[in-house]
Structures are given as C-alpha cells and as structure tokens.
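Many introductory courses stop at the sequence. We go one step further.
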Amino acid sequence: MKIAAIDFETANRYPSSVCAIGVAIMEDGKMKEPYYSLIRPAENVFWFDDFNTKIHGIRQVDVLDAPSFNTVYEEVAELAEGALFTAHNARFDMTCLVKTCHNVDVPVPDLMYFDTLALSRRMFPEMAHHRLNDMCERLDIPLNHHNACSDATGALMIVQRAMEMTGIWDIDQLLCHFGLRKRGLY
C-alpha cells in the first residue's frame, strides 16, 4: 500500500494561506524521494504574520515567484494517487487542505487519512508530550522542524518505526493493532 505523509506551513492564521507543502511517500515499505514546494498563497490571504514567519522562516518575498496551490495540487495528486494519507496532528493539515481547496475553487480530494500524533500516543503512552519533534527525537529520526518536507518525512518515518517495532507491515493491520481508524475528509 502507498502511504503519503503531508505537511503544510501557512503564511498567517488562516488555514487557506498555505505557503509550503511537503509530501513523503512510502510504497511497499520503501521510501520515495520526498516532494517539497513553496506556494504563493491566493491573493485574499497573501500576507505573512510575524508569528508564522518566526516558526517556519518563510517570508512573503520567498513565495513571490512560487507556484499557485492549483499547480502544486495537480503535482501532488499525481504523486500520491491511491495513497492513504497521514500527518502529525492531521486535523491542522487536513483543515489546510480543505480550506485552501475551497478558497481557490479546487475540488476537495476524496481521501482517507490517519494521524501519526494518535499513533504516537498509542505507541508511547508514558511520554508527556507527543509533538513531532519529541517523537522524532525519541525514535532517532532526523528533523528540521517546521520545514514542510522534513516534517512530512518525519511523520512518515514514525509510521515506518511503528512497523519495525511491531513487525506489522500492513498499514490496516498496524492501525488495528493500535486501535486506530482511518478517516475521510467528510
């Protein structure tokens, strides 16, 4: 099965202001080359809050010549076709996806996903925090936190480590083992 981890960074407080995307894909247990792109936010959400820039380091000038979400959406849809999606704290990333699709009049994809944050909590219930950086440190996964490509790769590697730890390489069986389920966007 193909699994695609996705991560967005936003320019401001609006989930539709995506300014970067990272997608990491694992197919048949093998990691593929990750995808990364800056994104020029749609005009109605095209401003950068200092708060967001301090988190991810992306500035308005960095995305002036970046592709639109529509262009990136087509590339990601092709790369991730047929994949089960995941993200760490998936509610944020899936909200970004849905809100941005609505904002730029692109059909919301019909996809299923699960959350690596929930998986992390089931794997290590004794940990005080299960943030992406905490999990990557615990599992010895390299991470450049708040870089969308690195965050997506880190989330996918959590799945890979869970598979290694349990010996369960089928994602449906792994989710069942941890009492988790897939969700749809609707």
